[in-house]
Amino acid sequence: MRLVLVCVALTAALVSPALAHTGLQQTNSLASGFAHPFNGPDHILAIIAVGLWSVLAGGCALWVWPIAFLATMLAGFAAATLGLQVPFLEPVIWSSIVVLGFFVAFAVKAPLWSGAAITGLFAFFHGHAHGTEVLAANLVPFAAGFALATVGLHAVGIGLGVLAERSIGKVALRTMGGLVTFGGVALIAGWT
């Protein structure tokens, strides 16, 4: 847990104030909710990293960590729509990409509950950011679409991880984690 806090703090120091979550979006349908996570690479990279890390951990982590992410992401989304303000929103989101990618790249092992807490913490901030971007009308269909897209991205991360691990080995899986970390650093640096 100390490693997570140190990584978040270091990444937060590098993050500029103007980042990915910029404003209100159309929120009137399941389809707009489903499309929303694909509008920014931050959500995609973080969710895929959760899938990769869960494959690396194996066992119950394959389903517990993605469910923890989904549940707390929806809690963060709900908190934002209710007006709860959260400090350090963008730094934690960007840190999540770097930290989760780092965990995969360096094969960081975590107990089941600890991994669920880490993924859940990051997910709350992702959900909150997306909840602040939506208009009040028809939040339930939007949230359902948003959750469905997140489940799909988890499946992609798990599928990529399983495929890489079975065909090439853990080195390929860890390399993908390194690519996620690089992607997070590139986003922070504004290289995209």
What can you see in these coordinates?
The chain has 192 residues and is an all-alpha fold. The chain has one domain (39-189). 75% of the residues lie in helices and 0% in strands. It has eight helices and no strands. It has helices at residues 2-14, 30-35, 41-57, 61-81, 89-105, 112-132, 139-167, 170-189. Helix 3 (41-57) packs parallel to helix 5 (89-105).
Question: What would a concise description of this structure say?
Answer:
With 192 residues, the protein is an all-alpha fold. It is built from eight helices and no strands.
Topology at a glance:
Blueprint: H1 2-14, H2 30-35, H3 41-57, H4 61-81, H5 89-105, H6 112-132, H7 139-167, H8 170-189
Q: Output mean pLDDT.
A: 85
Content-based structural category = mainly alpha
Strand content: under 5%
Distance between the termini: 30 Å
* Uncertain parts: 12-24
Q: What's the main sheet like? A: none
Number of strands: 0
Quickly count the domains: 1
Q: Helical proportion?
A: over 70%
The rough form would be described as globular
- Computed CA radius of gyration, to the nearest angstrom: 16 Å
N to C succession of SSEs: HHHHHHHH
Helical segment tally? Answer: 8
Question: What labels describe this entry?
Answer:
single chain; 192 residues; mainly alpha; 8 helices; 75% helix; globular
